[in-house]
Amino acid sequence: MEGFVIIALKSIAVYVFIVAAIRLFGKKEFAQLSVVDLVFILLISNSVQNAMVGADSSLSGGLIASFALFSANYLFKKLEIRFPTISKVVEGDPVVLVYQGKVISDGLRKSTLTQEQLYAAIREHGIMELEEVDLAVFEVDGNISVMSENYQKISKRKRKGHKLLGGNTA
Q1: Which end of the chain is more exposed for a tag (fewer CB within 10 A), N or C?
Q2: Is the pLDDT at 152 greater than 70, yes or no?
Q3: CB-based contacts of 91: which residues, under 8 Å, 6+ apart?
Q4: What CA–CA distance (Å, rounded) separates 164 from 39?
Q5: DSSP letters along 89-150, please?
Q6: Distance (Å, whole) CA 47 – CA 128
């Protein structure tokens, strides 16, 4: 039993370390992992496995480690809800990347994104010109939100077209 408690405590320590390390070294867009991000995650998980379970490669040792990680994650999420300051420290704040068609260089630097990555995200939202972007924000979940008045006008025109076809989409 004592061995299982050690496994659980080691697993929780690794969990806290990984969360802190990702926050300190800067998060990228986790919504769409690149090949480099995927390889990184696989190597990190492999490198900390022995630190969590040690020589115990039994099913019960693995289940205890997994249970400890799920429990730590559950507790962490509950603490973030109860204490918003914790969430702000761990998740950070949204970062403005584009405002009224102009790239905010400090925002790009803070979010560790390149202009190419920003332009790709803008294109994914169906906007071809930077000048059409009213606001682009790097959200705390790693997604990039893009708002454009021109896009809203296009959406309204499409909705009007549907009404003409007999559909009520307002």
Answers
A1: N
A2: no
A3: 80, 140, 141
A4: 50
A5: HHH---EEEEETTEE-HHHHHHHT--HHHHHHHHHHTT---GGG-SEEEE-TTS-EEEE-HH
A6: 42
* Number of CB atoms found within 10 A of residue 136's CB: 25
Q: Which two tokens stand for residue 95?
A: 């970062």
**Which tops the pLDDT comparison, 155 or 21?**
21
Q: Which residues of 24-63 are buried (b: 16+ CB within 10 A; e: fewer)?
A: eeebbbeeeeeeeeeeeeeeeeeebeeebbeebeeeebee
Joined together, the tokens standing for residue 85 give 């300051």
Rounded to an integer, what distance in angstroms lies between the CA atom of residue 50 and that of residue 134?
49
- Taking only the tens place, the pLDDT of each residue in 42-95 is 788 888 888 888 887 788 888 888 899 899 989 988 998 999 888 888 778 899
pTM strictly above 0.85: no
The neighbour count for residue 148, using CB atoms within 10 Å, is 21
